[in-house]
C-alpha cells in the first residue's frame, strides 16, 4: 500500500509506493526494496515509465523475499534527493538492510529485472558473510550491537560503511568483560543497535565486529594479527589501519571519531531540474492519461464479458483493478 507520510502525485500508480524522507527503507526494513528517484519534467523518466510500471506489476522476489517497489518524486523532494546523491533522473536503487546498489545503464524492463535478480544474489552473499557460527563473547543478538565475524568470510562488505573490528582471544574474564562492554557501548554511540532489536531511528556511521581468535575455526594469523586484542579499521578503497594504543575506551572513541572525520564527505548533488519544456511535459502527461483511459475502457469491457460468462471471480478482480486505475486517472487530471 501507499504511505500517508508522502504525497501521492498520481505520476505512478498506487502499486508503486510513494516515498520521501519521512518514509524510506532503512536498516530495519524487513523487505528488500527497488526505489526509483524520478522527476516528472525529465524526458528519460517518461521514456522508461511504462517499463518501471510493468516491473512493479510483477511478483518480484529477491533472495527469497518479496520486493517492494517505491518511487521518490524529486520535484517535490528536491533536498532529500540531493542528500541521497541523486544527480540524474531516473536513478534506480536496490536497498536491503542498510545496503544499497545502483542500476547503471538503460532502464528497460529486461535491465530492471536482471538488476533485481543480481541485487538479490549480492544481498544474500552479504547476509551470509555476517552469519558466523563462532559467536565468541557476542552471543546475544538482542543485546550485542557488535557483530560476531568469522575469518572464513572476512572482511564483510565495506561498500556502505566502514568497520571497526576487534580481533581478540577470550579466556581472561576481566579483559573479556572490558572489551565486550567497550565495543558494544561504542557501537551504540555510533548508531548501531542489536540485530534482533534494530532501531529505525538510528543511522550507523560505522559498523562494529569482533573475531574470537581463540577458536580454531578462525585463522587470525592470515590477517597478520598476533597480539590481542587488535582493533582494526576497515574502509573501502583504503588499507586497514590498526589502533596502536592500549585498549582504552576513551582513546578508542577518539580514534574512531578521527577516522570518521578523515573520510571523504560525499558531495551533495545539485537539485534536479526539468529538461522538458512545460508544454512537453504536459503533452506527455496527456498522452499517458489517454492511454490509461483506453486501458480502463478495455478493462470495463473485459469485466462485463466475465460477468456475462458468470466468471464472477474474474469480474471482481477486474472491478478492483479498474477502481485503482480510475483513482490514478483522477490524480493525473487534477
Helix and strand content put the structural class at alpha/beta
Count the DSSP helices: 7
Q: Provide the succession of SSEs.
A: EEHEEEHEEHEEHEEEHHH
Assign an overall shape.
elongated
Radius of gyration: 25 Å
Tell me the helix content: 25-40%
Strand order of the largest sheet: 1-5-2-6-7
What's the assembly state of these chains?
A: single chain
Mean pLDDT: 89
Low-confidence stretches: none
Sheet-strand content, in percent, reads: 15-25%
Largest sheet: 5 strands, mixed
Description:
The mean pLDDT is 89. With 334 residues, the chain is α/β, with parallel strands linked by helices. It has helices at 43-57, 78-83, 109-129, 173-189, 249-262, 278-308, 312-333, and strands at 17-19, 33-38, 61-62, 65-66, 68-73, 91-96, 99-102, 147-148, 163-168, 207-212, 230-235, 238-242. Helix 4 (173-189) links the parallel strand 9 (163-168) and strand 10 (207-212). The protein has a five-stranded mixed β-sheet with strand order 1-5-2-6-7, covered by helices on one side. A five-stranded mixed β-sheet has the order 8-10-9-11-12, covered by helices on one side. The protein has a two-stranded antiparallel ribbon with strand order 3-4. It has seven helices and twelve strands. The chain starts with 16 loop residues before the first strand and ends with a helix. It is elongated and about 80 Å long.
Amino acid at each position: 500500500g501507499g504511505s500517508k507520510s508522502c504525497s501521492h502525485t498520481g505520476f505512478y500508480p498506487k502499486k508503486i509506493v510513494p516515498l520521501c524522507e519521512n518514509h524510506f527503507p532503512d536498516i530495519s526494513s524487513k523487505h528488500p526494496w527497488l526505489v526509483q528517484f524520478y522527476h516528472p519534467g525529465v524526458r528519460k523518466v517518461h521514456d522508461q515509465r511504462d517499463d518501471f510500471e510493468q516491473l512493479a506489476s510483477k511478483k518480484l522476489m529477491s533472495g527469497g523475499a518479496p520486493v517492494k517497489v517505491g518511487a521518490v518524486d524529486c520535484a517535490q523532494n528536491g533536498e532529500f534527493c540531493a542528500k541521497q546523491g541523486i544527480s540524474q533522473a531516473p536513478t534506480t536503487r536496490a536497498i536491503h538492510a542498510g545496503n544499497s546498489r545502483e542500476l547503471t545503464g538503460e532502464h528497460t524492463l529486461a535491465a530492471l529485472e536482471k538488476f533485481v535478480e543480481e541485487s538479490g544474489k549480492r544481498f544474500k552473499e552479504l547476509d551470509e558473510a555476517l552469519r558466523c557460527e563462532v559467536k565468541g563473547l557476542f552471543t546475544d543478538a538482542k543485546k550485542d550491537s557488535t557483530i560476531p565475524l568469522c575469518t572464513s568470510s572476512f572482511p564483510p562488505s565495506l561498500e556502505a560503511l566502514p568497520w571497526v573490528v576487534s580481533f581478540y582471544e577470550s579466556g581472561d574474564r576481566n579483559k573479556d568483560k572490558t572489551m565486550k562492554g567497550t565495543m558494544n557501548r561504542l557501537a551504540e554511540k555510533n548508531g548501531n543497535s542489536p540485530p534482533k532489536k534494530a532501531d529505525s531511528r538510528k543511522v550507523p556511521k560505522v559498523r562494529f565486529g569482533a573475531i574470537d581468535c581463540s577458536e580454531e575455526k578462525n585463522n587470525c594469523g592470515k590477517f597478520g594479527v598476533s597480539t590481542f586484542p587488535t582493533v582494526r579499521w576497515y574502509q573501502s578503497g583504503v588499507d586497514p589501519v590498526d589502533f596502536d594504543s592500549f585498549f582504552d575506551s576513551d582513546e578508542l572513541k577518539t580514534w574512531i571519531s578521527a577516522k570518521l572525520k578523515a573520510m571523504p564527505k560525499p558531495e551533495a548533488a545539485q537539485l534536479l531540474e526539468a529538461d522538458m519544456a512545460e508544454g512537453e511535459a504536459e503533452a506527455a502527461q496527456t498522452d499517458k492519461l489517454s492511454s490509461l483511459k483506453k486501458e480502463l475502457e478495455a478493462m470495463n469491457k473485459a469485466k462485463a464479458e466475465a460477468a456475462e460468462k458468470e466468471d464472477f471471480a474474474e469480474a471482481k478482480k477486474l472491478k478492483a483493478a479498474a477502481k485503482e486505475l480510475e483513482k490514478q486517472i483522477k490524480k493525473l487530471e487534477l
